[in-house]
Amino acid sequence: MSELRPITALGAVLPRFGSFGALEIRENAAMALASLALRFGTVEPMPFGLILPGPGRWVAGQGVAALWTGPGQWMIEAECCIELDFAAELKQAAPRCSVTEQTDGWVAFEIISRAGAIPLEALLSKLVNIDPADFGPGRATRTGLQHMSCFVVRRGDTHVVVLGARSSAGSLWDALETAAKRLEEKVT
Amino acid sequence: MLIPHPSLGPRDAEEFTYLGDSRLLDRPDPNAPDAESAFCDYVFLRDNPAGVHRELWFHEQGDRSWLVVTRDTVTHQVLGAEMARDVALARKGSGA
Amino acid sequence: MTRLSGGLIDRSRTLSFTFDGKRYHGHPGDTLASALLANGLRLMGRSFKYHRPRGVLCAGSEEPNALVELRSGARQEPNTRATTVELFDGLEARSQNRWPSLGFDALAVNDLLAPFFTAGFYYKTFMWPKGFWEKLYEPAIRKAAGLGSLSMRPDPDAYERGYLHCDLLVIGAGAAGLAAALTAVRSGARVILTDEDFRPGGRLLSETETLDGARASDWISALKAELESLPNIRVMQRTTVFGVYDHGIYGAVERVSDHLAEPGHRVRQTLWRITAKRAVLAAGATERPIAFADNDRPGIMLAGAMRAYANRWAASPSETIAVFTNNDDGHRTARDLAAKGVHVAAVIDPRPEARACADYRLIAGGIVTGARGRLGLTAIQVQANGKSEWIDCGAMGVSGGWNPNVHLFSHHRGRPVWNDALQAFLPGEGGPSGLLPAGAAAGCFSTAAALRSGAETARSALQEIGIAARLPNLPCADEEGYTIAPTFYVPGKKRAWVDFQNDVTVKDIKLAHAENMRPVEHLKRYTTLGMATDQGKTANVTGLAVMAELDKRSIPETGTTIFRPPFTPVALSVLGGGDTGLHFRPRRLTPTHYWAEGQGAVFVEVGQWIRAQYYPRVGETHWRQSVDREARAVRRGVGLCDVTSLGKIDVQGAHAGEFLNRLYSNMMATLKIGRVRYGLMLREDGFAYDDGTCARLGEDHYVVTTTTANAGLVYRNMEFARQCLWPELDVQLISTTDAWAQIAAAGPKSRALLDRIVDGFDLSNEVFPFMACAALTVCGGLRARLFRISFSGELAYEIAVPARYGHALMERLMELGADLGATPYGTEALGVLRIEKGHAAGAELNGQTTAAMIGLGSMVSQKKDSVGAVMSRRDGLASDKRRLVGLQPLDPAGKVVSGSHLFALDAPRSLDTDQGWITSACYSPHVGSMIGLGFLENGDERLGEVIVAANPLEGESAHLRVVPAHFVDPGGARLRE
């Protein structure tokens, strides 16, 4: 492995973590990402055993998951192999597809509620124009979040991940943190 | 406005970038004898009807699909939306 | 004191507040207006034009008179309606538009000059002398006629945006809205109930009638408790739906902490974008006054407002009141105030058949013809049965009837229709689809009718979206009818006010009629009727009725009143939604940002990107010193610059090469694997668009770069080409801009430096020549991409590593390059280097220039089609003879200023003789003087000629020599060594 030491998207050695009432926000700096796009005449592959999801959806398998990003296009995520060439592995798993390294293109903030879905949905309502009724576990969408283009993935009832451009990680953290802090302030 | 995305359902127009007249799909033949005047029309002339209009919208804050949206510019009623790629392929297929 | 018994105020707590510096007391539940009335104050403001003393007219958001300035310091807020301000402890309020005091206002002299200030006076009066308008008239008018004043300081509070979705949005929580919400919530539908008030109930809170035999407030409390216990409804108080937008999108403002002295960590207000499948408009109705002589005396208010102050807020403007009404509803005011122990001096009703509904003196068939008491009503003049009398009273309730609040219904040009029985406009055809009016907003004025209408409307709205709802059991309520006779104004010689906020009188409307300003649109603009903060909520129908009578036409023939968003004023701060300061737009940081910060770099905004502009060193006192040093370091040793912000787009697919051939004016399909080519994109109209490099990493894999500024736009255009123009090509695109940290290493020693980090990769010129690219590893196994490309004209490379390693790579390069003179350089030196090399950038690719003009005409391939190729050959473009040249001052100390226009030495300076302009200029440490790039007529044939650069903005001109655009190494040997 290289002798160089990486830093997180927020410029630190360790991923950032914040707890705000019932919500916690954790920077996930250990996730490898690569995009997958179908070429003409290829059959939809099943990389690492994943059945690629349809529009607006996300599926998880063993240590890997896939997110629909556009017609014939997916983002594949993998845990714990950030230092490996995940794009190369994916290319092997889907040789007839176009694969592009995306790990460092994105910052991922995992948002978890300790008190059910309500605080999570309240937070989302201050950030993105997504109807929570149509955004249960396994749903995913790309949308604007305070002028940033983000993927929002409902990993579970009380768990959402927001993927934003790595370069604007600070602005994205700031947006999430500000909204989460405000939820703590009850108006009397 | 809500744009009925063919695969994602209704999406807020805030997520889209507007381009206008879907005639931009019909790029003229660059090798035709009258190519220059055809391109002149293509680049500079647009219809801007009060009524039903087929127009191009780009889902920039979404799945990056270009759509052909049929919209009444007077009432803003959206009568349909198709993937521009499908429309373009169908036109090429029909030789239009 | 004029505090009555009862009411929905919390007497267990006392709140202290000031008005014009004087201290008063009120209770939680009070508004500023109710507390002032309870403290015996009737005078609350001065009118806009005539500075007439004014009291409160209404009890809700339609208030035209009682506009006050709230708070102090940076939170000072003008034009707040005292009727909607919730009282809090420590509230500071001041009256507006008066000097020196509310009781004595010097500009009240305007009232005596009223004959000069009639409708349209400024169109007629201030025509001459020319120039006086800006210098004298406008400033003077602005000073005299005005509302509150701004603090002129930044708003210290936070605002935010939010998004909500529901099946049914219920606008208004009065009888109809509550019944609608109840019906919908029990069906399981997702419901949002909004109300502008701080307490649900609407008009029910202001009436004494009972529901199922109990107080209405009990029913409301029980209902509120039920609604709040259910998960499928969101009850939003202090929330105004201000506009209806296409396809069921509604704009709403929630006043989160307006009712608190300071918001603390909370936001002040939230801007909500609500997407609703259906909406019920249960916005109620607004009462309108009757115009009569001096009807603006403080103490004269709407009858319904007077009743609301008595019933809900236990406040009466006076101990003796009168009522002037043309409808049954006004009588309830007399009944309720009498029941509270207020003396009702008389009820005047123009209808001869009118009946009293309680024990008070009724003057049926009477009219009010005058009012006394400049700073507060003392008596009214009544005419009945041919006799005239003055009746003493300190306040009078006036009712000219009720207008359904059709505002939101008319936002999509929905046309209200006139109803003769109600003497009012009701929602008609063509309103926003999915918005269904109910209750008083739909003309159902009795409580029972409103409840029924709310429930039934909600049921049909839900039915339209496939949700079955059952009508709930509604409480037994007042079915009392409402009869009205049309009396809009009392004729007379004195001024009778129609629009209180804009000081528009019946006389002004008569003048507008006489001067043929008859269509309602003209009437509005000529008289200002219906303008300003209240948008004529209490005035428009009366104004229309007066015009109709003068025109001898019916009201519907004369016109209708339609409304635009916002329903009530919305602060710009909340529309901004918090996008201020650092939140104005996202900030994109380069992978070496924190490293650069540690080096003390000065940063510059480039679109969203924050890039290092230059790196000052100890002892450098001027930016030029730093920039010159950085540029020299590149030319002599090696410089390092983060170029990550350039757009990078990954292009793959069987037809990737053919696709790029069609996008770039030059050939890309023929590019060899492991090689890079400079590429120029045109717009379809033939002008130059964007430039960058195209690297071929594999048979069907390219990476292209774009300029920083155009990264997003080029990607959009490439998707357009892929999906819309050539869908038959097998191409896949994805942006990788953020994924790779890309660092330029430029200068004669760049190879030596990179040699120290590559893992056994041969960088020799033979193996890795100019315009080569490769995937490799560096620093012991780190995946990287290396491109031998140059922006500066020197031997140079760009090295890309995964973004998270950019910081460490920069540190390592600086460390290993110390003996080579490795120097970080910023965007400023980058600019100097590229101008010295004559490399076109944003200033040259400004959308007005062609490939030929920037010296790249030969790049537009004639062998193939590409975007813009056909149009680039058209006469207008092909005949343009301006060419990019270098420009150097004759005097080495002379200035070169970009934007200057170029002229032949002795030519006059005019548009006809203009021969081009300077696009870029800088001080060149290499040349030792300022230099410039510019487009010059036939520039390529004029090398050596001396021309004039005129800079009329600065009143300067300079003699410049025309030289080749490449100031450095014109043969390009350095790039290739």
Keywords:
heterotrimer, B: 96 residues, alpha+beta, Folate-binding fold, four-stranded antiparallel β-sheet, C: 977 residues, FAD/NAD(P)-binding domain
Give the helices and strands, then pairings.
The complex is a heterotrimer of chains A (188), B (96) and C (977).
Chain A: E1 17-20, E2 23-27, E3 31-37, E4 58-60, E5 64-70, E6 73-79, H1 86-93, E7 98-101, E8 106-113, H2 117-125, E9 140-145, E10 148-156, E11 159-165, H3 169-184
Antiparallel strand pairs in A: 1-2, 2-8, 3-6, 3-7, 4-5, 5-6, 8-11, 9-10, 10-11
Chain B: E1 2-5, E2 9-12, E3 17-21, H1 35-44, E4 52-58, E5 66-72, E6 78-83, H2 84-94
Antiparallel strand pairs in B: 1-2, 3-4, 4-5, 5-6
Chain C: E1 15-19, E2 22-26, H1 32-38, E3 45-46, E4 53-54, E5 67-70, E6 77-81, E7 91-95, H2 109-112, H3 121-125, H4 132-144, E8 159-171, H5 175-186, E9 191-194, E10 210-211, E11 214-215, H6 216-229, E12 233-236, E13 239-245, E14 249-254, E15 269-281, E16 285-287, E17 300-302, H7 303-311, E18 320-325, H8 328-339, E19 343-349, E20 362-364, E21 367-372, E22 379-384, E23 387-392, E24 395-399, E25 402-404, E26 415-419, E27 424-429, E28 435-437, H9 447-464, E29 497-499, E30 504-505, H10 506-514, H11 520-527, H12 540-551, H13 555-558, H14 572-576, E31 588-589, H15 593-598, E32 602-606, E33 609-614, H16 623-636, E34 639-642, E35 647-652, H17 656-663, E36 676-682, E37 688-698, E38 701-706, H18 711-725, E39 732-735, E40 740-746, H19 750-755, E41 773-778, E42 782-787, E43 796-802, H20 806-816, E44 823-824, H21 827-837, H22 869-872, H23 875-878, E45 882-889, E46 901-904, E47 916-924, E48 929-937, E49 946-951, E50 956-963, H24 973-976
Parallel strand pairs in C: 1-7, 8-9, 8-15, 9-12, 15-28, 17-24, 18-19, 18-24, 19-20, 31-33, 34-44
Antiparallel strand pairs in C: 1-2, 3-4, 5-6, 5-7, 10-11, 13-14, 14-15, 16-25, 21-22, 22-23, 26-27, 29-30, 32-33, 34-40, 35-38, 35-39, 36-37, 37-38, 40-43, 41-42, 42-43, 45-48, 45-50, 46-49, 47-48, 49-50
Helix pairs in contact in C: 5-9, 7-8, 10-11, 10-12, 16-21
Care to describe what's here?
The complex is a heterotrimer of chains A (188), B (96) and C (977). Chain A has 188 residues and is an alpha+beta fold. Helices cover 18% and strands 36% of the residues of chain A. Chain A has three helices and eleven strands. Chain A has helices spanning 86-93, 117-125, 169-184; strands spanning 17-20, 23-27, 31-37, 58-60, 64-70, 73-79, 98-101, 106-113, 140-145, 148-156, 159-165. In chain A, the strands form two sheets. Chain A has a six-stranded antiparallel sheet. A five-stranded antiparallel sheet of chain A has the order 4-5-6-3-7, with helices on one face. In chain A, a hairpin with a 2-residue loop joins β5 and β6. Chain A is globular. The N and C termini of chain A lie far apart (56 Å). The model of chain A has no long low-confidence stretch (mean pLDDT 95). With 96 residues, chain B is α+β, with helices and mostly antiparallel strands. Chain B has a single domain, classed as 2-Layer Sandwich (Folate-binding fold), CATH 3.30.2270. Helices cover 22% and strands 34% of the residues of chain B. Chain B has two helices and six strands, in the order βββαβββα. Chain B has a four-stranded antiparallel sheet. Chain B has a two-stranded antiparallel ribbon with strand order 1-2. In chain B, a hairpin with a 7-residue loop joins β4 (52-58) and β5. The longest helix of chain B is centred in the C-terminal third of the chain and has 11 residues, at 84-94. Chain B starts with a strand and ends with a helix. Chain C folds into six domains: 159-285 and 404-464, 3-Layer(bba) Sandwich (FAD/NAD(P)-binding domain), CATH 3.50.50; 289-398, FAD/NAD(P)-binding domain; 486-571, Arc Repressor Mutant, subunit A (Orthogonal Bundle), CATH 1.10.10; 588-645 and 739-833, Probable tRNA modification gtpase trme, domain 1 (Gyrase A, domain 2, 2-Layer Sandwich); 647-735, 2-Layer Sandwich (Alpha-Beta Plaits); 881-976, Aminomethyltransferase beta-barrel domains (Elongation Factor Tu (Ef-tu), domain 3, Beta Barrel), CATH 2.40.30. Chain C is of the alpha+beta class and 977 residues long. Chain C is 22% helix and 28% strand. In chain C, a hairpin with a 4-residue loop joins β49 (946-951) and β50 (956-963). The chains are: A alpha+beta (188), B alpha+beta (96), C alpha+beta (977). Chains in contact: A-B, A-C, B-C. The interface between B and C is medium-sized, with 34 and 23 residues.
